[in-house]
Amino acid sequence: MPGRAVALKVWLLTLVVVLTNVLGNFSLSWGMKHSAYGLTPLGVLRTVFTPWVLAGIVLLVLWLLTRLTLLSWADLSFVLPVTASGYVLTVMLGRFALGEEVSWQRWAGAVLIAVGTSLVGVTQPKTVDGRRGSV
Amino acid sequence: MNAWLLVAIVVLSTVASDLLQSREMKAHGEIDEFHPTRWGAIMARVLRRRWLILSIFFMAVSFFAFLVLLKIADLSFAVPATAASYAVETVLARVLLKERLNWKRWTGAALVVCGVALVSM
User: Fold this and answer.
1) Any idea what DSSP says for residue A93?
2) Which label site among A45, A113, B63, B66 has the fewest CB atoms less than 10 Å from its CB?
3) Please, which residues 92-121 of chain A have a Cβ atom closer than 8 Å to chain B?
4) Which structural domain range is residue B93 located in?
5) Chain A interface, mutation test: which of B62, B89, B105, B121, most A Cβ atoms within 10 Å?
6) Domain spans, chain A
7) Alpha helix locations (H) across A34-103?
8) Given pLDDT bands bounded at 50, 70 and 90, which one contains residue A1?
9) Phi, psi of A129, deg, nearest 5
């Protein structure tokens, strides 16, 4: 497959991995915070079946499966930094969707992550083949 | 329980989980079937790999240890402390998984570690 098509495929899946993680965590924590049930075993069980928590769990299962697929296409040392872009998205969500105050440290951290992600993103995703050794 | 002990448990189990997942998915080969009717078969094939099951166990250990850590320590301590796993994993990806890292990858990984530490302050 030509390099450009591989890159597009990897970037699209990275986007799905990042979005399912950020939205899954957001949905889960929203559901846990706004649950009407207590922290008894039955309460926790009921909480799991509330819409937000259930949606969060489904999204995080999808995250695990898409991340495994991404790991079958790309190095761990590629996947880790590029999926860290989720932190940047979380900061933006906090600022622009929830209206939170974002400190300068947090913006600086987001910028560092974005630069790190871009640097790793331009490297070849896969440098080793599990079945044949180096590629 | 001591916060640093919990940090160590979170970092070590995250590292073990990711290294095992990467190793197993490399050995499995690229997944390139996306038709929904094939998803069940792919999952059944992937989840038959024993080390992958172990990696999901480590993932659960890491998750619950992190929850306990959040009970006894601030989020602004927990997230940067556990960001150390990015650094450990990058080095081990080179040593154990034999991935070839050029300067862009090393620099990018270092920036991400610093960035994650800053974001959670």
Assistant:
1) I
2) A45
3) 103, 105-106, 108-121
4) 3-119
5) B105
6) 3-125
7) 41-48, 51-73, 76-83, 85-92
8) very low
9) -110, 120
Q: Tell me which residue in A77, A78, A106 faces B94 most closely, judged by beta carbons.
A: A77
Region B92-106: mean pLDDT is 95
Give the closest residue to A121 by CA, choosing from A90, A75, A88, A87.
A75
Residue A78, chain B, CB below 8 Å: the answer is yes
Q: Which of A65, A16, A20 is nearest to B52 (CA)?
A: A65
ipTM score of complex: 0.89
> Rounded to a whole number, what is the largest CA-CA distance in chain B?
48
Number of domains in chain B: 1
pLDDT tens, position by position, A40-90: 788 878 888 889 999 999 999 999 999 999 999 999 999 999 999 998 988
CB contact under 8 A, B121 and A65: no
The reported pTM is 0.87
- Of the pLDDT bands very low, low, confident and very high (cuts 50, 70, 90), residue A20 is very high
Q: Which of B21, B28, B99 sits opposite A128 (nearest CB)?
A: B99
- Contacts for B51-54 with beta carbons within 8 Å, 24 or more apart? B51/B20, B51/B23, B51/B24, B52/A68, B52/B20, B52/B21, B52/B24, B54/B20
Q: In the block, which residue shows the tokens 């069980």?
A: A45
